[in-house]
Amino acid sequence: MGGRPFYNVTGPQADGVACVVCGADFLADKITAVAVGRNPVDDASVYACKEPCARQLAEDAERMAQEMRTAAGLDDADVPSERDDPVFCVDGHFGSLLRDLRTLAGTEALLSTSDDNTTLRFLLSLTARHAETAMMRARLVLARTKPDDADGGTDGDD
Ligand SMILES: [Zn+2]
């Protein structure tokens, strides 16, 4: 699996003989250990008790991934495309623009609390993508709206 970096891992934990979550000594206790990631210092695998520590890590990771998907609005369409049908429908783009902005606010919150390299990179790619689509959508909406005093509104609603 390779994967997830564990920072600030030292001593027995870095040697792979102690749980990186609870610190249990695999040599002294009868514990089933599973690799849960690696130490970025030397790229060696690090381990956790199969139960409950590894499961807890997996659940945390899944919850974080779900939070990021939700923050990113990845459950709905997120990038303008042909199937974003009335391509030039202002309301559609306005709604999508608001979603982009919510996503950016969500990634800001996550960025400020995350120190995991994989997570940071994921969040930064989300930020780049949504900032770009937000710009496009803002320009589309701008281009299709007029200043209030452009030509005396017929609906007089303001
Ligand atoms: Zn443990």
Structure description:
The protein is mostly helical. The protein has two domains: 1-61, no CATH class; 73-144. Helices cover 49% and strands 8% of the residues. It is built from four helices and two strands; from the N terminus they run αββααα. The chain has helices at 11-14, 50-72, 90-113, 117-143; strands at 33-39, 44-49. Strands 1-2 form a two-stranded antiparallel ribbon. The protein starts with 10 loop residues before the first helix and ends in a 15-residue tail after the last helix. Mean pLDDT is 79; it is low at 77-88. Residues 19, 21-22, 24, 48-49, 53 line the site of zinc ion.
Short structural summary:
Helix content is 49%, strand content 8%. It is mostly helical.
What attributes does this structure have?
single chain, 158 residues, mainly alpha, two-stranded antiparallel sheet, 4 helices, binds zinc ion
Q: Which parts are unreliable, with pLDDT below 50 for 5 consecutive residues or more?
A: 77-88
| Arithmetic mean of pLDDT | 79
Bound ligands, named by name, code or SMILES: zinc ion
What is the N-to-C order of secondary-structure elements (H for helix, E for strand)?
HEEHHH
The helix/strand class is mainly alpha
Helical proportion?
A: 40-55%
* Spatial ordering of strands, largest sheet: 1-2
Radius of gyration: 24 Å
- In terms of quaternary structure, what is this? single chain
Spatial shape:
elongated
Q: How many H/I helices?
A: 4
The total count of strands amounts to 2
What's the number of domains? 2
Q: State the end-to-end CA separation.
A: 58 Å
**Relative strand content:** 5-15%
Major sheet: size, sense and barrel closure? Answer: 2 strands, antiparallel
